Amino acid sequence: MAFTADQFHAFLAKVKLPEAPFVSDALAADDAADFEPAASSQAVVVGSEVVGFADGVDASLRKGFVSSLLLAQLVAEARVGNKTDVAVHHAAMREVLVNLGWLIVDEKKQRVAEKGDDLDAHTAILAVATSALGGVALAILQTVIDQIRTASGKESWFKLFSRKSIAQQVANYQLSTISASDAGVQVSLMNFLVQADTDLLQIAFFRSQTFAASLDVHATAFSVDADTLRARADAIGAKVAAFQSSYIAALELPQAPGA
Predict the structure, then answer these.
(1) Is residue 186 in some structural domain?
(2) What pLDDT, in 10s, does the model give residues 216-234?
(3) Local structure of residue 117 (DSSP, 8 states)
(4) Is residue 202 part of a domain?
(5) In the chain, N or C: fewer CB atoms in 10 Å?
(6) By C-alpha distance, which of 139, 121, 138 is closest to 129?
């Protein structure tokens, strides 16, 4: 059962967030994410998370989802920091989202690769996503990952993602996909932990043939009532307003074939 409005507001009032960043640490204003209309797919970087929207999810919902996922990430950061226990980090995020009224539909966890050479994280991620996702969600995840893999590292969104997710030999990050259908709005949140025996640089999405690494994944699928999210979006946005400029950036997706 989803949390009532009273339970939601009580949770939001008492939830603890980390200290807000200084303004000087914020991204430039022209790097901030604008939310596309329902006719367009879109990806948004939220700190250590990449959120992919399929078409059919309108701009007001996209804003609400990004604020919700940012809140979940901030609470997890405040509670557990950048710990190497991906299960604890994922559980902290999941708990927040449930308190916002999201309903858990399915959960999965998997160690994709044991420590060893030649870890292809990109292939491993998609292998997990294939079993956890389907249809439109899987397609947009493929597009998002391809865009990340080809990043030059100069884009502000990639600098933000790297700074928030990669710390020496550990990459702790999230990928989410959000799609809408006649059955409602579906969200898949996947937490990934890559550990290696040397410093990481974009290893989250590249093949490594020179050192050992392992990839652990925790995934939860949610169903979200669109009207409930719209009603609560402003309150959630106000809670995370001090963090948005330094945590959120747009990731430009290539135009779809034939568009």
Answers:
(1) yes
(2) 788 898 999 999 999 999 9
(3) S
(4) yes
(5) N
(6) 138
